[in-house]
Amino acid sequence: MGISKAAFLFLLLLSSGKMKGDILDDYSRTDGVWIFTRNKQFYETNDEKECADKCEAERNFTCRAFLFTRKKLQCLTLAENAKMTLTFASTDTVLYEKIIYLMQCKRGIGTDYRGTEAKTQRGIPCQKWAEKIPHKPK
């Protein structure tokens, strides 16, 4: 049994980026979790969607997750996710992790890598492929 033509067209539009769902659809949500990380950025935001926007726009590092505190309306964009560092309970916090960085996939020369490594084998922090700072790519 196949899918209808309308359902197929909807999925095609969604996958091509012409039709985008909720920004939080790209994240896995875990209530009551805090993660320990050194690479983070603090922002004041009104809600989780605004925090996700901050994560998407982060320029200081590759944002793999964010923490949102409900009482303080505080957003922390994070270079690490729960697979990469320690976690602990925190009642007022919600951890959102980018689903693509929770997958395990190392292929080719690394240009499509979306795994959990945040440092090179020598300990140098990773940067976005399009960035020229702090390292000039070869």
From TrEMBL:
Keyword Magnesium listed: no
Kringle domain span: 104-138
Keywords, ordered alphabetically: Disulfide bond, Kringle, Signal
Keyword Membrane listed: no
One Pfam family here: PAN_1
Organism the protein comes from: Zonotrichia albicollis (White-throated sparrow)
UniProt protein name: Kringle domain-containing protein
Leader sequence segment: 1-21
Superkingdom to which the source organism belongs: Eukaryota
